[in-house]
Amino acid sequence: GARLARRGGKMASTAAGKQRIPKVAKVKNKAPAEVQITAEQLLREAKERELELLPPPPQQKITDVEELNDYKLRKRKTFEDNIRKNRTVISNWIKYAQWEESLKEIQRARSIYERALDVDYRNVTLWLKYAEMEMKNRQVNHARNIWDRAITTLPRVNQFWYKYTYMEEMLGNVAGSRQVFERWMEWQPEEQAWHSYINFELRYKEVDRARTIYERYILFTLLVIVHPDVKNWIKYARFEEKHSYFAHARKVYERAVEFFGEEHMDEHLYVAFAKFEENQKEFERVRVIYKYALDRIPKQDAQNLFKNYTIFEKKFGDRRGIEDIIVSKRRFQYEEEVKANPHNYDAWFDYLRLVESDADAETVREVYERAIANVPPIQEKRHWKRYIYLWINYALYEELEAKAKRTRQVYQACIELIPHKKFTFAKIWLLYAQFEIRQKNLPLARRALGTSIGKCPKNKLFKGYIELELQLREFDRCRKLYEKFLEFAPENCTSWIKFAELETILGDIDRARAIYELAIGQPRLDMPEVLWKSYIDFEIEQEEYEKTRNLYRRLLQRTQHVKVWISFAQFELSAGREQNLSRCRQIYEEANKAMRNCEEKEERVMLLESWRSFEEEFGTDTTKERIDKLMPEKIKKRRKLQAEDGSDAGWEEYYDYIFPEDTANQPNLKLLAMAKLWKKQQQESEAAEMDPDKDIDESQS
C-alpha cells in the first residue's frame, strides 16, 4: 500500500510538473506590426526612467554622543571595508582621510595618509593632499616635514619644489625658500626652474644673486650641455640690459657668439645683439654684426636676419646701404631658385640682370660661367632655345663692358658647343659675323658665315650672308651666294624672286628673265602663285605685253583658277591699246567657256560678277543685257549629312546656282518656273477662301 501511495504521489507530481511547463504559442500572423519600436526609442525611454526623481533618503538627526560615536563607527567600518577590498585605489584612502579631517580628527587623517603612503609612495596626488591638509590646519612643521620627505623621495617632480618654495615664501621665510631652491638646483632641473629662482631673487631686489644664478645656469650650459639654447643667453643679456648693466650685456652677447662659433650660428642671437647695439646708438656696430652674420649663416636660415637688417637700413642707413641690402636679398632669392633647378634659364636671366646692374665685372663673369655650364641634357633644339640666349647675352656683355678678345672667345666656345649635325642657330653665326665686321675684320666674318653654310646650311644664314654682301656692294659674291642658295633650296620662291630682282636692279634684264624661266621650270615650289605673279609683273614693267600674254597662256595651261582669268582680263584692259576692250571681253568669253565644267560654282559666279562690273563700266546695252542673261539663279537646297561612323547626322541647307546657258539645267529651270507659278496660284486661292464676301460682291457686280 505504501508503494502504491508513493507511486501515485510520483505520478501526481509528474503530472503537475507537466501542467506547469508553459507551451510556446505558435505565431500565426508573421507580418510586421503597424507601429514599430526602434532601438533608439528603447534606449531613450530607459534613459528617461533613470532620470526620474527618487525620493530623498530620510535625514538622520544625531541627538547625543552615543549616536555620534555609533555613526562614526559605521562610517569608519564602511571606509575600512572599501580599503580592505582594494588597497591600491588611492581615491578611497583620500576620501577616508578627508572625512576624518572634516571631523577635525587630524591625527586619524594623518594616520590614514601614512598608511596610504606605505601602499603607494609614488602617488603625487597623495603627497599633495597630505601637505595641503597640514597647511590648511596651520601645521607648518608637519607640512615642512612632508615636503622634505616628498622632494627626497621624488626629486624629479617639479610640483613639489614649486609648492615647497611658495609655502616658505608665503610664510616670509626667504632664507628657507632660498635654501630649498639651492637644493633644487643641485638636481639640474629644466630651464623654468632656474628662471623661477632668478625671479624669486629679483622680487627681493637681489640683483647680484640673480646674476650669480645666471652665471651658474650658463656654466651648466657650457660644461654639462644641458641647455645649449640661444634664448638662454639672450635672456641673460636682456636681464643685464634691463638693470642698466650695458657693458655686462655686451659681454654676454660676445661670449654667446664665441660659444656657438660659426658651426652653430643662429640668426636670433645676432638679431638680438644688433637690436641691443641699436638701442645703444652704436649704428656702425649694428651694421658690422648684420654683415658678419649674413656672410656666414646659410641663406635659407637668415630670412629674419634679412628682414631686420632691411628695417635697420631704412631707419638709419643711407640710400646706398638700402640698395645693397635689397640687392643682396634678391640675389639670395635667385640663388635659391637656380639651386633648386639649375636648368631654369629664366631665373638665370633675372639673376644676371640683377648682377650686371650692381656687381663688378668679375662677379658678373662668374655668374655667366655658372649659367652656361648648365647645358641642356637632351640634344633637341626646343630645349636649347632659351639656353642659347645665355651665350648671346654673355657675348654682348663682354663686347659692351669688356674687351673684344673675350667676346670672340665666347662666340667661338658657343659655336663649338652647339651640335651642328643635329641642329644649329643661325642667330649665333650672324651675330658673330656682325661682331667681326664691327671690329673691321671682314675676312673673319666671311669665314664664319662660309663655315656656317658649309656645316649647316639654312635659309636664314644664306639671307644674312647675302644681305651682308649687298651692303658691301659685292654683287658678284651675291650672285654666287644666290646660286648656292638655290642649289640648296630650289623650291624657295622668295629666293628666286630676290635673285631676279637683284639682276633687274643691276640692269641685266636677260639674266633676270632667265632666272624666272628657271624658277617656273622647277618641279616643286613652295609658293608658285607668288613666283608667277612676280614674273608677270616683271614683264609688265618691261612693257613686254606679248611675253606677258604668253606667260598668262602658259599659266592657264597649268591652272584654270578664276583669279588667273580675272587678272588676265584686267591686264588686257590696262594694256593701253585700241583693242583692249575687245581683248578683255574675249578673255571673259574664254574664261566662261572654260569654267562651264568647273565644279566650284562660286568661282564661276565670281567670274561673271567681274565680267558684269566690266560691262557696266565699258559695255553697251546689248552687252549688258547679254551678261544679265548669263547670271545664274540662286536657290536653296537641302542635303543629307553623315557622321564619321556612317550614321545619319541630319540635313543641311545650302545655296546652289543654276546657270541659264547650261543646257543640262534647262529642265530644272522649267520645273523651277512651274513651281513658282503653282505657289502663286496657291497663295491667291488661300486669300479668296479667307475673304468670301469679297467674292460674292464681285459675282453680283
TrEMBL record:
Family assignment from sequence similarity = Belongs to the crooked-neck family.
Q: What is the documented function of this protein?
A: Involved in pre-mRNA splicing process. As a component of the minor spliceosome, involved in the splicing of U12-type introns in pre-mRNAs.
Coiled coil (residue ranges):
538-604
Q: Which keywords has UniProt assigned to this entry?
A: Coiled coil, mRNA processing, mRNA splicing, Nucleus, Phosphoprotein, Repeat, Spliceosome
Query: One Pfam match, by short name?
Result: HAT_Syf1_CNRKL1_C
The record's subcellular locations are: Nucleus speckle
Q: Which PANTHER family match?
A: CROOKED NECK-LIKE PROTEIN 1 (PTHR11246:SF3), PRE-MRNA SPLICING FACTOR (PTHR11246)
Question: What range(s) does the Pre-mRNA-splicing factor Syf1/CRNKL1-like C-terminal HAT-repeats domain occupy?
Answer: 91-381, 396-553
Bias regions of kind Acidic residues — which residues? 686-701
Task: Provide the residue span(s) of the region labelled Disordered.
Answer: 1-27, 681-701
Output the GO biological process annotations, alphabetical, semicolon-separated: spliceosomal complex assembly
Gene Ontology terms, cellular component aspect?
Answer: nuclear speck; post-mRNA release spliceosomal complex; precatalytic spliceosome; Prp19 complex; U2-type catalytic step 2 spliceosome
The answer to whether keyword Signal applies is no
What top-level branch of life does the organism fall under? Answer: Eukaryota
- This chain's protein is named Crooked neck-like protein 1
Quick one: which gene encodes this? Crnkl1
Q: Which Gene3D superfamilies match?
A: Tetratricopeptide repeat domain (1.25.40.10)
